Every structure is written in C-alpha cells, then in structure tokens.
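Training component of the fellowship. As part of building independent skills, the fellow (R.M.) carried out the full modelling exercise for a liganded target. The chosen ligand was 4AD. The inputs are recorded below so that the supervisory panel can assess the work.
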Amino acid sequence: AGDDAKRLEEAKSIKLVNDESLGVATKPNLIYIPISGWVHNLRVQGKDMMFLVLRDGTGHLQCLLKGRVCHTYDALTLTRESTVKVYGMLNEVPEGKKAPGGHELVVDYWELIGRAPSGEENYENQFNEESNPEVLYNLRHLVIRGDRASSILKMRSIIIKAFRSHFESKQVTEITPPLMVQTQVEGGATLFGFKYYGEEAYLTQSSQLYLETTLPSVGDSFCIAESFRAENSHTRRHLSQFSHCEAEYAFIEFDDLLQNIEDMICGVVEAVMNDPIGSQLLKELNPDFKPPSRPFKRMPYTEAIAWLNERNIINEKTGQPFAFERRMTDTINEPIFLCKFPVEIKSFYMKRCADDRRLTESVDVLMPGVGEIVGGSMRISDYQELMDAYKREGIDAAPYYWFTDQRKYGTCEHGGFGLGIERFVAWLLNCYTVRETCWYPRFPGRCQP
Ligand code: 4AD
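Fellow's submitted model of the complex:
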C-alpha cells in the first residue's frame, strides 16, 4: 500500500507530451488514429502495462498502454466508464491473443476527458446480473451501457430500419401521426386521459384511424410511432408505452392482408440476417434462431377453441382466449395466423365475415415464446355499418366525424395491422420480457428514468 501511495504521488508530476508519436504514422500498413470513448473494461498487468477496452457506440477497441503512458496519475486512478481520448498505432493483435475485432491500439498518448467515480460510486459497484429488477430499472440509464442491453438496443435500431426498408420497397408511405387525440381505438378501459388546454384528450392507443385517412391522400401508408395503453397488467409482454408499427392498405381483401403481414415479417427477418451487424448480434443474442417457414399456419378462432377444449386448457379467470393462446402457440411451436374472431371480443371498426356475420375478418399473429405480436383486420367499409358499430359499442360518433367522413367521401375495402416492436424484438432475440426490448420501459408503477 505504501508503494502504491508513493507511485500515485509521483505520478501527479508526470506530464505527458505528444513527443515521440507522430513520426511513425507514415509507416506502411500501420494506422495512427485518435479514438474517443468510454472505458468499458480495464485490466492492469504489473506496473508497466494496462489494457483498456474502449466503447464508442460503433464497437469496442482494445487499447494497450505501456510504460510511461500508464504511470500517470490519471492512469493509476482510471475507472470504468470514464471518458478518454487515446492516440496510437492500430495493430493486429499478436498471434494467440484475442481482442474485439482482432485489433489493438498501442497507445503513445492519451487524455482523460471525464473521470467516473471510484469507490462506492464506481460503476461496477452499482449493480450486477443478480441485482433486484427494481434496482436495474432505477439504474436503466447505466444498465444500457452494458453488453447485453446495448446489443438489444442496437438490434432494435436495425430491426426498425428493416421495417422501414420493407415498406419503402412496397411503395408504402411513412407518416408521423398525432399522439394526442380525442378518440379511442381499442376500448375506453385502457385510455390514458389528460387535460388538453381544458379539453378532455388521450394519449393514442393506435394510429390506425388516422392511417385510414391517409389512404385517399398518399395511398398505402405506415407509421412507427408510440402507442399508449393504461393496462393494469403486470405481464412480461405488456407495456404502458410501446413502439407500434402500423400499416394500412386500400383496395385489398382479407387474404391480401395476411399475405402482406407474412411478407413483412419474413422480409424483416431476412434483412436483419443479411445485415452484417444484425447477423452478428443475432448470433450472439439468440444463436438458436431459425427463420419461420412459410406459409404461416392459418387457424380460425373456432378451431383454436376446439384445440384448447380437446386438451382441457381453459382459462377460468377471464374466459378470453388471451391467456391461453400462448400455451397453444408454444405447443404448436410455429407462427400462427389466428383468424376470424367473434364480433363481441374485437374492436368496433372490424369488418364482418360475409359468410358468418357473427365473426370478423380479423387476425392475430402468434409467435412461440411471446404470443401475439400483430393484431390486424379488414375495416368496415360501409357508412351505415360503421354508424351501427358506434352505437353497439356505446361510442359517441361526434368526435369521430373525420373518420366517418372516409366512408362518405369515396369508401373502399381496406385493412391493416399493428405490430408491437418490443414483442417482435423479444421474439427474434428470445428475450424473457418486453421490458428488456425497449429503451426505458413504462409499466404500472414505473415512469422513471
Ligand atoms: O392488437 P392491438 O391492440 O391492435 C391495434 O391497436 C390495432 N388498432 C392495430 C392496427 O390494426 N393498426 O395491438 C397491436 C399490437 C399487438 O399485437 C402487440 O404486438 C402490440 O401492438 N401491443 C402491445 N405491446 C406491448 N404492450 C402493450 N400493452 C401492447 N398492446 C398492444
């Protein structure tokens, strides 16, 4: 300890100058670079050698500090998550040694930019894999710096990019919808209300109704926007705010809708697997992932109920298919188009089946491990049918005048769907909960950080 204190004291007087470095930059096959980043990992080897792994969001780089550059006060007191700028030669790692990307920066000059705390406040003392989930949610802003969380966030970005490219390739136009609205889409029970300059307003549950109004304007359209649900359910697949990828298509039939959904899911999976970073992250996060085979299994709702009854799987609590559809999907273990739900358990806007007016042209996509990731349907195209639907559901038609106008000014057969990005990511990466696949999860009791 005495030795260390002496070294630390001496180190304060060591001033590094950028003296012997720049000359070698001209050597062939060697690159001299400056890199700024966060100290992701720190390993001291004896008095004269120190390995840093720097993180800058694009990747990790191992840096080797040898001799004078690791004798400074800043080097001796360096902590995880400090920010530094290093200068040096980029080399391949010596034979038999491993480093991210197979490279190593041999540092001949470096500067400390921001010192992260040591001691009790040290990053590494804040949490670990076994910490209580509450601690991890409180420290989410620090947790997202970790390998797993940052890889999932990266993957989310690659997946969202793939959704956008898919729609672009099909000439579907992106819109950005209003999130503060005065109409409900998926039932009054899950609305977040607030005062909007003294008027009653809500955070949107879905942008579907707005997307329907852009069909006659820009044609088939989609959005990737936040939706909100005041769902008082503490499950691993419900959030109070989620990223909702929704699309709407004009002049289609129910079969086209199913085809569009299948094309999108398979297209996005393929794009992610063809992306160099996407494929690498997928291998790390979910090495057993197999792309789903096509066509997806189609199962009418009535058949699903029969399947469940045969196996005595009954949901005593709710009487709804919701809770046990996951068991069915996990048993069948492939994507399922669960189709044609009864009118009474679905939303007001859904079109009825021509051959059985008790059923709707609706679909949920169920995925093993997660359950429902997509909800979609054909929409009511007839004015009077829509007016009847408002009445049946006890909805005041007045605030929906702009939506109702779509059925007056040139109606058409149309349909669409919504896909929860967090559930899709959870499925693709085999994550236990959607709380892990969003940036800052919102659920009952959690609106921080
Ligand atoms: O089935 P939902 O409620 O359908 C709609 O909102 C339609 N208006 C969409 C449309 O047709 N444009 O929600 C669609 C999807 C679900 O399948 C699920 O993936 C996701 O949105 N979702 C949620 N994800 C996380 N937490 C919640 N509370 C969610 N509620 C829905």
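The panel noted the following from the submitted structure. Residues 16-28 have pLDDT under 50 and may be disordered. Residues 185-186, 206, 208, 229, 231, 238-239, 242, 244, 246, 372-376, 416-420, 422-423, 434 surround 4AD (CB under 6 Å).
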